[in-house]
Amino acid sequence: MSSVASSAISLRFEPVFSWRTTLSSQLLNTCPRVPLPSLHADLAFSLLTYGMALSNFARLTVNALGYYEHDSAISAIERHAKDEKLNFAVSLLCRASGVFAYLSESALADWNSAGASGPRPPDLTTEVCAALSKMALADAQALAIRKLLSLSANESTLSPGPPLPKSHPSAALLAKLHLECASLYISARSLALTPGKVRTTRNAASESGIGASGEVTGELTRHLTDEAAFHSALAHKWLGVDAGEGGVTTKGGEACGFPGVGEARVGGPMWELQGNAFAQRQNVWRRQKREKG
C-alpha cells in the first residue's frame, strides 16, 4: 500500500475485488458479492475478516473450556491450565479489538483520502467498525472478570453459601467492571445503529444492492442489547452484595434494592445469573422477550 501511495508502483488499471458482506441486514443467501475497486477496499475487508477470525477463535476456545470453575472435581493444576486458556482468549479478543479500531481510525480514513467514491456496505463504515472494536473489548473484559472469579467460584462450589470466600475479589470492583462492560456494549449498539439512521447511506445501499436498508443485521444489535442488560444486572447484583457485606445495618434497604433493579433489567431472578443455570436461562429470557415484542 505504501509503494502504491508513493508511486513507487503504478497500476495499469484499478483492481476490483469482490467480497460478501457478513453484517448486512440481508441474508447471506440473497446478499450479492459486492465489487469494490482499489487496494484500500481489499485491505479493509481483509482486516475486517481477520478481526472476525480472531473473535471467533476466542469464542471457540472459551466454548471448549465449559464452566470448569464450577466443577467440584477439578484439581488446582487443571483449573490453572484452563485459566491460562481463558487468558489466551482474552488476548485474542484484545487483538481483535485493536484490528477493528485500526480499521475504523486509519484504514478507512486512508481509503477516504485516496478519493474513493461509491457506496459501501455497512460493514465498512467507521461507526460499525468502531462498534466491533468496543464489542470485542467488552467481551475481553467479561472474560477477564470470569478469570478473576475463577478461584472463588471454585471454592464456593465446594462450600456454598455465605459469606464470600476470602479469595473473592471486592464486590465494588466487580460492580465497576461490569458497569464498564455495559457501557461498552451500549456504545457499540449506538454506533452499530448509525448507518441505518443516515438517510444518504440507506439510499446509496438500496440503489447498489448492498443491503435492503443499509443496516447491520438485527442479531448483532440484539446481542449488544442483551449483553448490556446482563452486565448492568450483574453490576447491580454486586452493588447489593457490597452494601450487604459492608456490615452497616443502615444499608440493608440498598442491599435488597440493587438486586431488584438487576432483576428488572434481565427479567429473571438474580440467583440464576451464574454458571450453567444462567446459560440456560438466558436463552429462555431472550425467547420470551422476542415473543412479547
- Average pLDDT reading: 76
- Gyration radius (Cα, Å) is 23 Å
* Major sheet summary line: 2 strands, antiparallel
How are the strands of the biggest sheet laid out side by side?
Answer: 1-2
Helix/strand order: HEEHHHHHHHHHH
β-strand number: 2
Proportion of strand residues = under 5%
Task: Characterize the overall form.
Answer: elongated
Give the end-to-end Cα distance, rounded to a whole number of Å: 48 Å
Structural class: mainly alpha
User: Which ranges are low-confidence, i.e. pLDDT below 50, for 5 or more consecutive residues?
Assistant: 199-213, 269-281
Helix content: 55-70%
Count of runs of 4 or more consecutive helical residues: 11
Structural overview:
With 293 residues, this protein is mostly helical. Helices cover 68% and strands 3% of the residues. It starts with a helix and ends with a helix. Mean pLDDT is 76; it is low at 199-213 and 269-281. Strands 1-2 form a two-stranded antiparallel sheet. The protein contains 11 helices and 2 strands.
